[in-house]
Amino acid sequence: MRRTYDDLVHEAATVSVDGWDFSWLNGRATEERPSWGYSRLLAGRMAAARAALDLQTGGGEILAGVPVLPPVTVATESWPPNLELAASRLRPRGARVVADDGSERLPFAGGVFDLVTARHPVRTHWPEIARVLAPGGSYLSQQVGPRTVFELAEWFLGPLDGSARDVGAARAAAEAAGLRVVDLRFERLRMEFGDIGAVVYFLRKVIWIVPGFSVERYAGRLRALHERIEAEGPFVAHSSRFLIEARRPGGPAA
């Protein structure tokens, strides 16, 4: 029996969106993954590191999946529900979880980490990353690229400026902070939303796609999108991702 619009929306509007686990969308939405395999790269870098810092760790899901963590592993997170999740996952692994107050300056001494990582950071403070890296240390990050999920965002918001999160700008900022970019890759990836519940859940969880999103505020556009999906099949959008690895000059790893 086909579920109604009200049933789908109510379910998606009331389920928890804490953490950074998207398994609720299994069978309801799909997204292609970048070919470079960030989790695999992360595991390799972590296994070789002595002291590592994972920035904006979310609920700690990605870091907790790393088989071997360095002797010193620290993660930061700013959103209180995610902070609690991250602590529950990472403290049993010997990792310390530190609250990020949102300021640009990281609460660590300079030159103490030989590896800094971040998966989908909201912001990248390149001078601070360069400051806390030890000579020869590396920053490895998979980031959200330009015009990510714009098809969905523009359904609700109208035409948008897609110039943010430029890959070239990331390279320039890293180099301006004194780092040397040793790897930079970009891919555009297909996404499909199979029902309106998947859309509601996604927009509740990834809050920057449609800022201020709520079911009540966008009821008309949600119902129109539901009718389109029912008539034409999954709503197709595209994400973009880039991988950047930058190294601080000096030291044995340079």
From TrEMBL:
<keyword id="KW-0489">Methyltransferase</keyword>
<dbReference type="InterPro" id="IPR013216">
    <property type="entry name" value="Methyltransf_11"/>
</dbReference>
<dbReference type="InterPro" id="IPR029063">
    <property type="entry name" value="SAM-dependent_MTases_sf"/>
</dbReference>
<dbReference type="GO" id="GO:0032259">
    <property type="term" value="P:methylation"/>
</dbReference>
<feature type="domain" description="Methyltransferase type 11">
    <location>
        <begin position="53"/>
        <end position="139"/>
    </location>
</feature>
<protein>
    <submittedName>
        <fullName>Class I SAM-dependent methyltransferase</fullName>
    </submittedName>
</protein>
<dbReference type="Pfam" id="PF08241">
    <property type="entry name" value="Methyltransf_11"/>
</dbReference>
<keyword id="KW-0808">Transferase</keyword>
<dbReference type="InterPro" id="IPR052939">
    <property type="entry name" value="23S_rRNA_MeTrnsfrase_RlmA"/>
</dbReference>
<dbReference type="GO" id="GO:0008168">
    <property type="term" value="F:methyltransferase activity"/>
</dbReference>
